[in-house]
């Protein structure tokens, strides 16, 4: 589960029922304490309502014949999106617009997201009239009608229909929990193989769960459509329920030559879900958000945007190391440190640097020697930087040999040229290592 997800620790059910009495009849006691029957639809609904009520102040009305969204899993997706949006906070983007594809009767994603993020608003689509009318009343019940707008569409229309209807529409992200299955048989086969745990299968209507070709084909359609919409949306994302779909969707992303993408994994009990993000922008997300350690999936991972170099440090004098890094950055011709956050005790420090072109490689320096003086460094700010990166020291625990483990971390934030980023990171770590050993 996401590190900020409070449901990493299972809730105290009896306490929850005190706050939300409608849950009381669903509580079962056993020798180890209290729980609920997770196979019982009513119990599941009450649990979802209770958690949303207690932890988010959300009042939800869930119709019986539609999916009951499990809160921990839905929250995981929202927290991951927060991480992605956080990546570009340095741009000073104030308000965030998200598109929820297939919002369902609960409108769970827009409601949770808006409660957690005061600056977010949503367009929420669905093809199911009944779900949309429930979604609308859930939105109104929570006083969020000014921030969440529902959008009725059809299965035949483009998935990103709102972008077609309004040619001026721009969004920060799209999200989707797609219908998983390709047919009723697929639903039964999956239930038999226990691929999806009970709460995903037992309460959905066909329209919520079944789409031609299943989730893989739905999300690949999204990838295809996104090519045309391009940078009108910054981050395209979707959840996926099957590992095989993940392989197919990443294949589609790579097939379009999109290298700016990421994968995450949501694990809740025995249930595993994945989510993908892709973008046509030159903004880069950190490896903690875009890569996972699952050994089965390494061949699908995007290239690294977070480079960590272990640096030999004889005495871990943090202040000195921060100074060395600061000086190494200041010495890069034509680059500019635009922001430096250094804590009082130097235990944490982060420098954001803008560079317009490679001035640091041997070849660049030789060229400059022949070509006269270097470009005016103050001109960098005026021109669009081709590289934005952030650098910081990571001070680890004491290593086995007694010396502490110290890493220089270089995070790619923006830019189109991977070689420029990697070259810059290795230049700085070389300069820093040289300065330390002097
Ligand atoms: N977001 C909710 C519901 C997910 S179920 C949740 O996470 O709990 C999938 C939803 O997608 C259903 O509500 C279904 O009606 C909707 N849907 C199916 N095809 C769609 C399409 N082409 N465009 C938009 N929504 C669609």
UniProtKB/TrEMBL annotation:
One of its GO terms (cellular component) is nucleus. S-adenosyl-L-methionine binds at residues 74, 102, 126, 177. Keywords: Methyltransferase, S-adenosyl-L-methionine, Transferase. GO terms for molecular function: methyltransferase activity. It holds the Pfam family Methyltransf_10. The keyword Methyltransferase applies. One of its GO terms (biological process) is rRNA base methylation. It comes from the Eukaryota. PANTHER family: RNA N6-ADENOSINE-METHYLTRANSFERASE METTL16, SAM-DEPENDENT METHYLTRANSFERASE. Belongs to the methyltransferase superfamily. METTL16/RlmF family. This is S-adenosyl-L-methionine dependent methyltransferase. It comes from Mycena albidolilacea.
């Amino acid at each position: 589960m996401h590190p900020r997800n409070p449901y990493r620790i299972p809730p105290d059910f009896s306490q929850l029922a005190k706050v939300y009495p409608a849950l009381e009849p669903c509580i079962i006691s056993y020798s180890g304490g209290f729980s609920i029957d997770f196979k019982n639809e009513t119990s599941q609904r009450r649990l979802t309502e209770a958690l949303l009520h207690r932890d988010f102040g959300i009042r939800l009305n869930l119709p019986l014949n539609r999916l009951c969204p499990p809160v921990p899993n839905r929250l995981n997706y929202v927290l991951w999106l927060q991480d992605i949006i956080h990546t570009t906070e340095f741009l000073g983007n104030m308000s965030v617009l998200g598109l929820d594809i297939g919002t369902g009767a609960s409108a769970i994603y827009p409601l949770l997201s808006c409660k957690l993020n005061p600056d977010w608003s949503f367009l929420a689509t669905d093809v199911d009239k009944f779900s949309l009318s429930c979604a609308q009343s859930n939105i109104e019940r929570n006083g969020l009608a000014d921030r969440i707008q529902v959008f009725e569409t059809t299965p035949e229309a483009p998935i990103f229909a709102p972008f077609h209807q309004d040619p001026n529409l721009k969004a920060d992200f799209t999200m989707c929990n797609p219908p998983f299955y390709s047919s009723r048989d697929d639903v039964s086969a999956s239930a038999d193989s226990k691929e999806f745990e009970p709460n995903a299968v037992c309460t959905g209507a066909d329209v919520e769960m079944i789409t031609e070709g299943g989730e893989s084909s739905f999300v690949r359609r999204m990838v295809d459509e996104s090519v045309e919409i391009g940078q009108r949306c910054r981050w395209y994302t979707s959840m996926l329920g099957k590992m095989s779909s993940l392989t197919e969707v990443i294949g589609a992303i790579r097939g379009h030559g999109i290298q700016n993408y990421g994968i995450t994994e949501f694990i809740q009990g025995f249930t595993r879900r994945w989510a993908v993000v892709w973008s046509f922008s030159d903004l880069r997300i950190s490896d903690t958000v875009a890569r996972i350690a699952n050994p089965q999936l390494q061949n699908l991972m995007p290239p690294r945007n977070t480079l960590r170099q272990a640096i030999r440090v004889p005495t871990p004098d943090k202040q000195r190391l921060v100074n060395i890094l600061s000086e190494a950055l200041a010495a890069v011709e034509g680059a500019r440190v635009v922001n430096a956050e250094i804590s009082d005790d130097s235990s944490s420090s982060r420098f954001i640097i803008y560079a317009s072109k490679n001035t640091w490689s041997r070849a660049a320096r030789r060229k400059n020697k022949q070509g006269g003086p270097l470009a005016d460094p103050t001109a960098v700010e005026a021109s669009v930087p081709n590289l934005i990166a952030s650098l910081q020291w990571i001070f680890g625990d004491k290593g086995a040999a007694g010396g502490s483990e110290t890493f220089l971390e270089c995070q790619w934030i923006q830019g189109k040229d991977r070689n420029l980023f990697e070259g810059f990171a290795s230049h700085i770590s070389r300069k820093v290592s040289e300065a330390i050993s002097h």
